[in-house]
Amino acid sequence: MANIQTENNQNNAVQKKRLILVVSKGTIDMIYPALVLATTAPAMGMSVDIYFTFWGLKVLTKDGVNSVKIAPVGNPGMPMPNIVGVIPGMTKIASTMMKSKIEKFWPDVYEMIKMAKDSGVKLHACSPTMGFMDVKEEDLIPEVDDIVGASAFLSWASEPDALTLFI
Amino acid sequence: MANIQTENNQNNAVQKKRLILVVSKGTIDMIYPALVLATTAPAMGMSVDIYFTFWGLKVLTKDGVNSVKIAPVGNPGMPMPNIVGVIPGMTKIASTMMKSKIEKFWPDVYEMIKMAKDSGVKLHACSPTMGFMDVKEEDLIPEVDDIVGASAFLSWASEPDALTLFI
Amino acid sequence: MANIQTENNQNNAVQKKRLILVVSKGTIDMIYPALVLATTAPAMGMSVDIYFTFWGLKVLTKDGVNSVKIAPVGNPGMPMPNIVGVIPGMTKIASTMMKSKIEKFWPDVYEMIKMAKDSGVKLHACSPTMGFMDVKEEDLIPEVDDIVGASAFLSWASEPDALTLFI
């Protein structure tokens, strides 16, 4: 192996100027990849839109943003046998363990969202998911920019200048 | 928060004219995002191809299309403790609960597939997955257009005019 | 249904010449779609970069590359009730079952990685994930090309000639 770069390498340049992320899962391990990209891209000159849908929408709620969880079962990457994972309370313990580990490297979820907002990142809640998930407009954190449908998403994502990732 | 748009907003326009979706997971919560996009895009002037692979392929079978499930364990977004989720029958109960909820907002999976087909959406079964999943040609629903390999998918997905999402 | 193509169809051509894959999950069923694309694309004239992050990073470690697992719980696509899935040892049994089945169709994970390397595919380890996952440089398999951050990934992925998929 030859080459190690740091996160802050200044030689990287982007050719597309817009990053569109779909956040469809609500677990810590899938939220962080989105938030790391969303907070990295603005410094490289990209505008960023994040479209929160299905389980991802929960992250945009006042209750959800501070309680993003990880499942201790069904995840062979976790060092915990499934039989332990189903004991009541283990989701909380596994989530706390992973959070305390993640937070050595990155700020917590809400802090990352605020950092992203300060860099101009736009947060969009998926309108059809709102009803399906019983999320009301007043349940959303104030950082949400708007509530839009799939057609708005397709409109941005289909721009030739957009890099779109479904996470 | 400023702005609420409805799903049917007519002001959205697309610049890329082709949407390519890979459906790799076979659970309700990952099928619906694909089907919602696939039924929204044609009205915006996009042609749509869906490539069903791995767990996603099951959705294209006669047995699978009416029995798409959701896992009640390992999903911290579900309001159900893991210890309950492993009780035999809970996958069925959780799936029924989620289905009855989803169907307040969208038609069922097979109905969505038929709507998509009526709009010209093409459904492709992944050929190498067929063998691996023990799915035979006669097991597929008649709405399937063809059985193709990864090279066909890469050929479409690499068109400059294509927006490609791996779901 | 009309048309069946084989994997080796020579009529498929690609217009974008670069394939960028993000591998964020560490389970067999999500590693194989990436490796199948990575070993198919070079024959079609595409250069391929794979960025391993979060759970995906484990696949690049000496310990991880030969022990990629599948979860027997939380996966309604598996023919195994959740109550059986939590019995100690079932992750191993489910993984062995799936591996022996997959290996009728494709080589094992490490063999696929070596095939990809022989075709010029580049393997990148995500630098911020290294710390978070307690993976040290000496833990990585020698096939890894470099350790880079999110900004390097965004730089490649934003090339107009790149097809980028988040798996």
Multimerization state: homotrimer
**Unreliable residue runs of chain A:** 6-10
List how many beta strands of chain A DSSP finds.
6
Under the CATH scheme, the architecture of chain A is 3-Layer(aba) Sandwich
Structure description:
Three copies of one chain form a homotrimer. Chain A is of the alpha/beta class and 167 residues long. The first copy, chain A, has a single domain (18-166), classed as Hypothetical Protein Ychn, Chain: A (3-Layer(aba) Sandwich), CATH 3.40.1260.10. Chain A has helices spanning 28-40, 82-85, 90-102, 109-118, 127-132, 150-157, and strands at residues 3-4, 18-23, 47-52, 122-126, 146-148, 162-166. In chain A, helix 1 (28-40) packs parallel to helix 4. Chains in contact: A-B, A-C, B-C. Chains A and B meet through helix 3, helix 5, strand 5 and helix 6 of A and strand 1, helix 1, helix 2 and strand 6 of B.
Short summary:
The structure is a homotrimer of 167-residue chains. With 167 residues, chain A is α/β, with parallel strands linked by helices.
